[in-house]
């Protein structure tokens, strides 16, 4: 392995650096996008019980906000609950946009690595081929074994760049899908909290709906969730900029 790195030339260094950064981002995103950390079980019911217990103190709001990203969205809504449904919905949308932005952290860098790594490899190959043809101009084509070795060495950087780029692209698309899925869950949970606070007929359904139903509903577009669970004009819509990135 060390011999391949040395044979690839100086452009192997930025390719190796890209691979290290890519691995670090993948590990960090697997840790940060843990569903249990972002969407703790029973948090909706806890938020409702906090509301029922009486006036929410700053300490209780801070505890809810720091508990998880979903708690941050709930806290933003409960702080503005006294101002009416629309104000609460707007506050939850704003908090949800921030949460989605945080979940997308480092994904642009991972996408950049997936795009740049093969270009670095191609550049190394081009520079290597220039050296090979320069050698042909000076020495002729008598030593074919030497020329073949030079060409194979020039192709090492292309192979290295692809080795880095392919997994990076796969994980980039996977994490984008994860963010979209978690954003849909955040939107659904926010809609349920709004229903519990402002729609008496949906109170029992909002708090007792099983998690399996939530899993099934997130396979469809977020707009379908709004149509089936709440009034489309009343449910908060969390930003999912992943579509723009693609």
Describe this structure in words.
- It is a single chain.
- The protein is an all-alpha fold and 246 residues long.
- It has one domain (2-245).
- The protein contains 14 helices and no strands.
- α2 runs parallel beside α10, α7 (85-103) packs antiparallel against α10 (156-198) and α10 (156-198) packs parallel to α13 (222-229).
- The longest helix is centred in the C-terminal third of the chain and has 43 residues, at 156-198.
- The protein starts with a helix and ends with a helix.
Short characterization:
By secondary structure, the protein is an all-alpha fold. It contains 14 helices and no strands.
What's the topology here?
Elements: H1 2-8, H2 12-32, H3 35-38, H4 43-52, H5 58-67, H6 69-79, H7 85-103, H8 107-139, H9 144-154, H10 156-198, H11 203-208, H12 211-217, H13 222-229, H14 242-245
Helix pairs in contact: 2-8, 2-10, 4-6, 5-6, 6-7, 7-10, 8-9, 8-10, 10-13
């Amino acid at each position: 392995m060390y011999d391949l790195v040395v044979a690839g030339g100086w452009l192997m260094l930025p390719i190796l650096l890209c691979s290290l950064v890519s691995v670090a981002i993948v590990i960090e995103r697997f840790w940060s996008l843990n569903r249990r950390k972002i969407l703790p079980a029973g948090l909706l019911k806890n938020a409702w019980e906090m509301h029922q217990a009486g006036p929410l103190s700053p300490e209780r709001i801070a505890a809810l906000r720091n508990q998880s990203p979903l708690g941050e969205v709930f806290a933003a809504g409960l702080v503005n609950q006294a101002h009416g449904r629309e104000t609460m919905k707007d506050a939850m949308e704003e908090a949800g946009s921030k949460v989605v932005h945080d979940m997308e952290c480092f994904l642009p860098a991972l996408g950049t690595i997936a795009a740049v790594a093969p270009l670095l490899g191609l550049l190394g190959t081009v520079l290597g081929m220039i050296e090979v043809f320069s050698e042909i101009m000076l020495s002729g084509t008598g030593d074919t074994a030497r020329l073949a070795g030079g060409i194979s060495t020039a192709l090492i950087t292309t192979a290295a760049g692809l080795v880095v780029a392919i997994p990076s692209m796969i994980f980039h698309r996977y994490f984008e899908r994860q963010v979209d899925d978690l954003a849909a869950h955040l939107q659904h949970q926010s809609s349920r909290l709004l229903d519990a606070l402002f729609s008496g007929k949906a109170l029992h359904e909002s708090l007792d709906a099983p998690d399996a139903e939530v899993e099934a509903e997130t396979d469809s577009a977020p707009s379908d969730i709004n149509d089936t669970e709440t009034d489309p004009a009343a449910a908060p819509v969390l930003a999912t900029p992943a579509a723009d990135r693609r």
